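Hey, I'm writing a tutorial for new members on how sequence and structure tokens pair up, and I'd like a real worked example in the thread rather than a made-up one. If someone can provide the structure for the chain below, I'll link this post from the tutorial.
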Amino acid sequence: MKKVAVVILNYNGRKFLEQFLPNVIENTDGELADIVVADNASTDGSVDFMRERFPDIRLIVNDFNGGFATGYNLALRQIEAEYFVLLNSDIEVTPHWIEPVIELMDSDPKIAACQPKILSYFEKDKFEYAGAAGGFIDKYGYPFCRGRLFQHLEEDHGQYDEAMEVFWATGACMFVRADLYLQKDGLDDSFFAHMEEIDFCWRMKNLGYKIYCCPQSRIYHIGGGTLPKSSSRKTYLNFRNNLSLLYKNLPSNRVFWTIAYRIFLDWVAAFKFLCSGGLKDFWAVIRAHFAFYRRIPSLRKKRGEILIRQVGQMYQRNIVFENFLRGKKTFVELDPEQFTHA
């Protein structure tokens, strides 16, 4: 058994496998890590391509497309390793990208998950949207990152090169302890895709574990490979899953009023979509809310299985107001005193 298993989940991403898999193979120490491709019932010839072009790479073929969450859960149950690396197919890695993260996680058994620094593949001096230098959320569940507040992406000048505890690690490239992942049922299957990694990290923090970013490892991400940012499907999943993760993980004294206020803000966002011609996104928000209401009984059961506590690295102000009304565009402009401590 290798110490690390790098697992690439693929769905109709043959072009990315052709472009980026050789780079992953070249920059991954075969003595340290195995590389596995898990296919989510692709219809673009990805499976035949893998068997013909990369016969030495282990291939797991799922019977159906269960999305990011179920796709990984099905695959990772078939893999033995000390650490799993959930790696998107549209990522270019760099030499020795695994070793610094494993060294950091080996040094502290309370680190459940960790991500590298993620930069844009197309603008390599800028941070990438999905993770940047580590993820956080505000008290209403809005996610942001060191290096990325909403659509503002900072240039990387080494300002976030310190390894530090964060709230969430991106699913685009998440290192996670395999035994913990499997014991705690991995990603929530009901999320399908989007924000499932935030939910997982929050659950780990509720258990007393830590989430880290290790900028000594650097990768480059295209992003939007499966669902483009303009997709109403993405809007639906983000709004539905955001309410779900809040309901599952918030302390009891905060859950009702936080969700009530968040629903109000979602309606504001929905009408903003409508006024700008985004009818599909408007309906996506509405559908997301009704889907959330239908899920409350099952979410209540899951909530009952989680030991909920006050966790650290949650920003206690509204990041929407901070960004759009107060003009704060970078992480360093935020008040460090407003981040909770565990």
